[in-house]
């Protein structure tokens, strides 16, 4: 007699197989539609393709988990940090660009790649073999390597490469100390030091802005600051394109957006190119604003010349100097701070807002396996949040814990932060990407 547990697993396996088969047909049709559109943006899938793609990723992950031997699966997961490390190494040394420049169709010899990267060929082979098994590169014949669709994304793409390198510098190295941070936090509201601070000797932002002495005794900014600034542009271009399409920015007409803690203004820069009537005030720390001015002069000089963009040194824990703006934009801001500081940031904006003003929080919107009434639910037998398709957001959530003792927020958590700041969430905008928009307005009833 077949046990009920085997029957349940068999039923789930068959449901997943059916889901994958039907999804494959939908994806092929969507690919054919895209191929006929000369203006198609690969970073902006159709609504249909986006959701079915998430279902496929979730189903493939669940399928693999069902059929793999459980102990082997756990041991495999325990070593997956090496996957990230291999990717960091190839991004940092420009392997994809080296292959693209030298490949004539039969692959590039590992000795050539080793010479140009400065890595001994036999050791580099071990790195590339791991990535070839994940289809990030391909071994065309023994010792000769080519790019795949994945690795080609890095070719001549400095913003993306900077993003991958930055994650290797900051997040990966600090994660080594995450167990220490968590184990030392028992019974405390917050740990004495974040994992990042334990690893680097200073909090994240303070470390980035410290000067370092060079051999000639001149003081220069740490190279990580420039890498991080350009990484934010890379992250924006890779993740934010659907945000530009799925939130109604045109409703702001010729309004003013204050980009609070906007870094070099990567998101505002993209919005300025897409919506030429909008005006921007970019706010951040002095060192970052200096970098931002250089980026804008290179990327969109007319906006600087016509003062369509203005640059302002500002600490978002202090009074917001721009009153009554149409929108206060914060991308990747609240996830950098624990709850108390998030409430302070939002409260300072609340004080500056007029009834027409809005706060637009652009971040990962956390969706857990139990689901949320505010977010689309995955089809059965997948968990409510699409399972493996949500993994990147969970990894980013853990990155925030590592760097700042903070988190990505669910719709319910955004609502709680808003309520404690005299605000209300009027809508969670789900976008065709890992990011969403939590839109907040003043809640004048909270003052009564």
Give structural notes.
This protein is α/β, with parallel strands linked by helices and 448 residues long. It has 4 domains: 6-71; 95-153, Orthogonal Bundle (Arc Repressor Mutant, subunit A), CATH 1.10.10; 154-180 and 196-207 and 223-243, no CATH class; 244-387 and 407-442, 3-Layer(aba) Sandwich (Rossmann fold), CATH 3.40.50. The protein has 20 helices and 12 strands. A 7-stranded mixed sheet has the order 8-7-6-9-10-12-11, sandwiched between helices. The longest helix has 32 residues, at 4-35. The mean pLDDT is 92.
Spatial order of strands in the largest sheet:
8-7-6-9-10-12-11
| Number of beta-strand segments | 12
Sheet with most strands: 7 strands, mixed
- Rg for CA atoms: 24 Å
CATH topology of the largest domain: Rossmann fold
Number of helices: 20
Overall average pLDDT: 92
Judged by helices, strands and strand pairing, the structural class is alpha/beta
Number of domains: 4
Shape: globular
CATH architecture descriptor text of the largest domain? 3-Layer(aba) Sandwich
Uncertain spans:
none
Corresponding CATH superfamily of the largest domain: Vaccinia Virus protein VP39
Task: Report the span from N to C terminus.
Answer: 67 Å
Pfam family, one: Dimerisation
Domain O-methyltransferase C-terminal: 255-422
Domain O-methyltransferase dimerisation: 75-155
GO molecular function: O-methyltransferase activity; protein dimerization activity
